[in-house]
Design goal:
The chain has helices at residues 42-47, 54-66, 83-89, 102-108, 127-132, 151-157, 165-182, 200-207, 214-224, and strands spanning 5-10, 32-36, 69-74, 94-95, 114-119, 141-145, 186-191, 211-212. The protein is α/β, with parallel strands linked by helices. A four-stranded parallel β-sheet has the order 2-1-3-4, with helices on both faces.
């Protein structure tokens, strides 16, 4: 029996991707197919994802399905605003964002605890992204962005060709500590950005909390898919 393939819609980028990043070919121990979406720069998707951006993602998702993809994933959590449209456009499961995990994580916590969301841009992530992921507005959520002028944000949003991993690790630890210091009610953290999973251990060590990310979600959906005939 052959393992089902996951289709990954890639932003139009050139920045380095580490193992653990959804766009790195070594992140998953099962088959994946990549499809670049022309014109979908990180800056545009995070800070200006208007309706004109949807059609190329629909085209890319349909192309992946034609190639045999059994589920579709995107490489930016901000694309949760297109969750309903993309899920309607193709006949396979669609995972636009790790924010889809927030309702589940919230149910794992007691009523006095909150879900922390670590994001690449705390000012850009708002109610529309949470609503697209199916997060009830009554859910206790705290959003914390990484430093806007930091190494990680500049490298990803600026689509730079170099990445200082040591600095990025420190920035993730710092943002996680700021989140939990300001909001001790946070009981677990969801990493919004699909480039953040390589730093999950840093966030865990800095906070002592459970940390969830897009890799978890993709693995869950892949495990749900039946094997294909060889």
């Amino acid at each position: 029996m052959a393992q089902p393939s996951i289709g990954i819609l890639m932003l139009d980028t050139r920045f380095p991707r580490l193992v653990g990043d959804l766009g790195h070919p070594g992140t998953f121990p099962f088959p994946v197919r990549h499809q670049r979406v022309p014109g979908a720069s990180p800056e545009r998707v995070v800070r200006g994802a208007g309706p004109a951006l949807l059609p190329p993602f629909v085209d890319g998702a349909r192309a992946l399905v034609r190639q045999g993809a059994r589920a579709i994933v995107t490489t930016c959590g901000f694309l949760s605003v297109f969750q309903a449209e993309l899920a309607t456009a193709v006949p396979v499961p669609v995972l636009t964002s790790s924010l889809l995990l927030v309702p589940v994580v919230a149910r794992l916590l007691g009523p006095t605890r909150a879900v922390g969301i670590l994001t690449i841009d705390g000012r850009a992530l708002g109610p529309a992204h949470l609503a697209g992921a199916g997060v009830d507005p009554r859910t206790r959520v705290v959003i914390q962005g990484l430093a806007e002028d930091g190494t990680f944000a500049r490298a990803i949003l600026g689509d730079q060709t170099a990445l200082d991993i040591v600095a990025c690790r420190a920035e993730h630890r710092d943002a996680a500590r700021r989140l939990t210091t300001a909001h001790p009610e946070v009981g677990a953290i969801v990493l919004e950005c699909t480039n953040m999973p390589p730093y999950r251990a840093d966030v865990q060590s800095a906070t002592g909390l459970p940390v969830f990310d897009a890799v978890d979600l993709v693995r869950l959906v892949h495990a749900s898919l039946p094997e294909e005939p060889a």
